[in-house]
Specification:
The protein is an alpha/beta fold and about 750 residues long. The chain is about 30% helix and about 25% strand. The strands form 8 sheets. The protein has a 7-stranded parallel sheet with strand order 10-11-9-12-15-8-16, sandwiched between helices. Strands 17-27-26-18-25-24 form a 6-stranded parallel sheet, sandwiched between helices. Strand 10 (about 285-290), helix 9 (about 295-305) and strand 11 form a beta-alpha-beta unit. The protein binds adenosine-5'-diphosphate (ADP) and zinc ion.
């Protein structure tokens, strides 16, 4: 993340201006139409900039924030009054500045940025209530036998209050039945206002740190105590105690009465952290992500704005909470691409955490075993501080990694487990230890081919192949979710045919394992068998308890989950992620394989890993085996620098899509023509050209890829171009600044 020194005059009122009745103001709305703000009149004196308000909008109501004073050329007779103030702390100038710079950096209207604040909770009714049910009248005449059972349940629990959910579950009844009994007075229903969550205690207990951990912890605490913006890259091998030391910085922040936020790339990873924070601070932190109920979100939103919650563990969206006095953000697993939001508004939560730190003037910690090249380069340049933990806690050793050359240890047709890996698994099975096989491919086979005409089955609405799931049964498009049964007839040659499954997915690998090791228990961890978070929790618990002998996993397995019984990791196809022309292919492979092999030997016994490849001399693989991470980063950095690729240059993708291909091409040509008239020598445009995946969900896609220098001024030029576009409704436009996937 780059920021320029802003020498312009401070545009924000630090002491929020107060208005008088009848003053004209512009109110920022969470809308995406051209103008993000509309003008309104102040209904009572005392409202000020930053106040959350309710305003009339057409026949509807909307939430908004008073943004700035409006004086000139207002037609006061036409303006409506703000309806009322909403009882939340005003948005302070730091947060307003964050939203403004967020919008500028990501090339989106301010209203879209504001929508990230308001989405997912109903700000117009922030109080959250809970209804509870208790016993009422006990006479049982005039009611059915079934209702009598329910009344007698309440009689047995006279004082106790139940929620509707509990009643439905325990009594196998419905809300209609309960409500009827409320009306007849047999059950009393009470509405309570939900209380605010508690703050974590300060002055927490902590582990005694090793000498190396102490040095790192002191640096992080120093940053936390400085009250100044500074980014520290905390790089430490898996199991070295990164979480342990950043909890010290959190503790220091809370001690000062400030709030802290930990961002996690995936909800599932919060489980372990929430538990550890609970152990350390005597109470679990509040969580903020899509799995949190609306009632809890409303409660938290308000409590955070009043400073009544001091630690949040959350997903990217937690960045948009209106903290009263945020003093630290920790981004855990900062390299993880899940921090990049690619739908709706595209942004990278790791970079935006840095922006929030710089606009709010507080420190940010980026933690990872395998930092992103962006962060590594920023540390090299001295823009970020860097601290390292090079050894696992208690010196448990890192797994020994070796390369297996598939040119020598040849695979049989339709088999993917080499003899080398086979014998490792055998020895683990004999020792009662777990093995992990890593293959980043969901389903049974990535390609299904007609044996008669060689046609490959593709998605009817996307420009992509269908993946076979469950052998010979189902087809699934991983882009749009289209599913179909495997047809009897080939849609191309129209013959009744046999289908050939080409290549392996995790299901096929599991089949091979069962064939090779008939008595072993094999388990799969892939997003296909994880319908929701609680299933994932359950799976992880099952796997980490050692009940399964061989775990087969997609990249889900590479994340920070702790599986103490794994002592062997086999990487089935190391070449897979190196292919494909993505500018970050080497970096991603490096991170993925380092993380996956790091899953071995996290318990008491040492671990070992084998990487299967047809390219044993590949430099990425060599640096993984040699644990020579710095060498890899240096090499990768110099290559990117040579090519002017990120993080040395900047990329911005603009993708337009439309159901009508001809219309899309026409609009694309117009856009290109307009760019011609305003282009800059600092920007190179590639395209417009069909996007690498040229059709998704029946919409054709055209891509403009801009390569430019890293200056916000240059970027503003693209914003000017976007401002002047006037697209038909049938065409959708997405802007992706610093794209990380190129599809
Ligand atoms: P990382 O975040 O780098 O993967 P963790 O902080 O999770 O590392 O530490 C790995 C394991 O070692 C955890 O179970 C943690 O509780 C333990 N650990 C790390 N440092 C200490 C310490 N100083 N005292 C006791 N246990 C520690
Ligand atoms: Zn599709």
């Amino acid at each position: 993340m780059q920021r320029e020194n802003n020498t312009e005059e401070e545009p924000f009122d630090i002491e929020s201006t107060k208005f008088n009745k009848g003053d004209g103001v512009s109110v920022l709305l969470p809308k995406t139409f051209d103008k993000s703000s509309l003008d309104y009149l102040i209904p009572i004196s005392g409202l000020g900039i930053g106040d959350f308000v309710e305003i009339p909008l057409g026949s509807k109501k909307s939430v908004g924030v008073i943004w700035e004073r409006r004086q000139s050329n207002l037609d006061y007779n036409k303006l409506k009054y703000i309806s009322r103030a909403i009882d939340i702390q005003p948005m302070d100038y730091k947060f307003r500045r964050f939203l403004t710079e967020f919008a500028r950096y990501n090339l989106i209207p301010l209203g879209k940025a504001f929508r990230l604040v308001t989405a997912g909770q109903d700000l117009l009714s922030l109080t959250s209530y809970r209804k509870t049910y208790q016993s009422g009248k006990t006479n049982v005449e005039d009611i059915t036998a079934r209702q009598r059972e329910i009344v007698s349940f309440f009689k047995q629990n006279p004082e106790q209050k139940f929620s509707m959910k509990q009643l439905i579950r325990n009594l196998k009844t419905s809300s209609t039945t309960i409500n009827a009994l409320c009306r007849s007075g047999h059950i009393t229903c009470t509405t309570e206002i939900l209380e605010e969550p508690d703050k974590l205690c300060v002055g927490s207990y902590s582990h005694s740190l090793s000498d190396k951990q102490k040095v790192v912890s002191n640096k992080l605490k120093e940053a936390a105590n400085s009250n100044l913006f500074k980014v520290t890259l905390l790089r430490g091998v898996t199991g070295s105690g990164k979480t342990e030391v950043y909890m010290d910085a959190i503790s220091a922040t809370l001690d000062k009465g400030k709030q802290a936020l930990v961002l996690m790339p995936e909800i599932a990873l919060t489980i372990d952290l929430v538990k550890r924070v609970g152990e350390r601070f005597g109470m679990k932190p509040s969580e903020w992500h899509s799995g949190i109920s609306l009632a809890d979100r409303k409660r938290l939103f308000k409590a955070v704005s009043m400073g009544k919650v001091n630690l949040i563990v959350g997903a990217r969206s937690a960045l948009f909470l209106p903290f009263l006095n945020l003093g630290l953000i920790v981004v855990d697993e900062e390299h993880d691409s899940s921090f990049k939001q690619e739908e709706g508004v595209c942004y990278n939560a790791r970079d935006m955490a840095v922006l929030r730190g710089s606009t709010g003037n507080f420190p940010v910690i980026l933690s990872s075993a395998t930092p992103s090249l962006e962060s590594w380069v920023n540390a090299e340049k001295g823009k970020y501080d860097r601290v390292d933990l090079t050894h696992r806690y208690r010196n448990s050793s890192l797994p020994k990694i070796s390369i297996l050359n598939l040119r020598e240890d040849e695979l049989e047709v339709n088999n993917w487990i080499s003899n080398g890996v086979k014998s490792m698994i055998t020895s683990r099975l004999e020792a009662g230890e777990q093995s992990l096989l890593f293959l980043n491919r969901r389903g049974y086979a990535p390609i299904t081919v007609c044996k008669s005409c060689a046609n490959q089955l593709g998605c009817p609405v996307c420009d992509t192949r269908l993946v076979q799931h469950s052998y010979g049964v189902k087809l699934l498009c991983h882009l749009c979710g289209f599913t179909a049964m495997l047809p009897n007839e080939c849609p191309k040659c129209m013959k009744i045919v046999e289908w050939k499954a080409v290549g392996p997915g995790v299901e096929r690998l599991a089949e091979e394992c069962l064939k090779l090791f008939p008595s072993a228990k094999v388990g799969i961890l892939s997003s296909d068998n994880i319908q929701n978070n609680s299933i994932l929790k359950e799976k992880i618990r099952e796997f980490s308890s050692g009940k399964v002998d061989i775990i087969i996993g997609t990249q889900l397995i590479s994340k920070g989950h702790n599986f103490p019984y794994i002592t062997f990791v086999g990487v089935i196809d190391a070449d897979l992620s190196l292919q494909g022309g993505d500018l970050r292919a080497a970096e991603k492979t490096f991170q993925l394989l380092r993380q996956v092999s790091g899953r071995a030997g996290r318990g008491k016994r040492p671990g070992e890993a084998i990487v299967q490849t047809y390219e044993p001399e590949n430099l990425v693989l060599r640096s993984i085996v040699d644990y020579n991470d710095e060498k890899f980063w240096k090499l990768e950095a110099s290559e990117r620098k040579f090519n002017g690729a990120p993080p040395f240059g900047k990329l911005i993708a603009v993708i337009i899509s439309c159901e009508n291909k001809k219309e899309l091409m026409g609009v694309g040509r117009e856009m290109a023509k307009l760019w011609e008239t305003m282009k800059s020598s600092k920007v190179t445009l590639f395209g417009p050209a069909p996007a690498p995946i040229s059709r998704i969900r029946n919409r054709y896609r055209l891509r403009f890829l801009f390569k430019l220098n890293k200056s916000l001024k240059t970027q503003d030029r693209i914003q000017k171009w976007l401002d002047r576009l006037c697209l038909p409704r049938s065409v959708r436009l997405t802007v992706d600044v610093d794209p990380i996937s190129f599809y």
